[in-house]
Structure formats: structure tokens, C-alpha cells
Design brief:
The protein has 116 residues and is mostly helical. The protein has helices spanning 8-24, 33-89. 0% of the residues are buried.
């Protein structure tokens, strides 16, 4: 597959110029008419696909924004559920671990090593 080094707009401009030149010289280029018609169809198809690509990019951005809003809502709801579980079960209940909440536990006493 060849690499396109020109921008899409530059390619369309070039193709349009070639189609116009072929139309201006239709008498001398009668044998090239099938090729000109193919290029004209390809240009039209390229324009349609570019329009579709632009539309999909806009849809993708909109979907990304909607997803971000939904994620933020879910984070808020999950936090509230965790807080509700802590309130209803009590801050020291070990079942809080199921809700990914650390229960409050008593402090452990530091061991005092016996002096020899």
C-alpha cells in the first residue's frame, strides 16, 4: 500500500483539477473517458467517506463526554453506597470489607521487648 504524503484536501484539489482538465480536453482525450469517469466516482466516494468520518468523530467525542459524565455519576453513587453501608452496619463491622471500606479497628499496642 502506498503512503499518502499530501493532505486529503490537497488530493481532492488535485483530482478536481485533473477532472476539469480532462473535461476541457474531452475531444483529444476521448480514449481516457472511462478512466476520467472512474476518478470522478472515486472522488465522490472519497468525499462521502470523509463526511462520514467527520460525523463519526463528532459522535465519538459526544460519546466520550457522555461516558465521562456517567463514570462521574457512578463514582458518586458508589461512594454514597459505601457511606450508607458504613452508617447502617457501623464503622467497626468487618462486613464493610465487602464494600471495599476499611472498618475502624482498635490501635494495636506496641510490643514491649523484655529487658534482659
Amino acid at each position: 500500500m502506498t503512503t499518502i504524503k499530501a493532505s486529503f484536501a490537497d488530493l481532492l484539489r488535485l483530482w478536481d483539477q485533473l477532472l476539469e482538465a480532462a473535461s476541457d480536453n474531452v475531444g483529444d482525450l476521448a480514449a481516457a473517458e472511462p478512466l476520467r469517469a472512474e476518478l470522478a466516482r472515486t472522488v465522490e466516494r472519497a468525499r462521502e467517506l470523509k463526511a462520514r468520518q467527520d460525523s463519526l468523530a463528532a459522535s465519538r467525542q459526544e460519546a466520550t463526554q457522555m461516558l465521562a459524565e456517567t463514570v462521574n455519576l457512578g463514582v458518586d453513587q458508589a461512594r454514597r453506597l459505601q457511606q450508607m453501608a458504613r452508617a447502617l452496619l457501623g464503622p467497626t463491622n468487618e462486613r464493610l470489607v465487602q464494600f471495599r471500606v476499611a472498618p475502624r479497628r482498635g490501635r494495636r499496642r506496641a510490643r514491649v521487648s523484655p529487658s534482659d
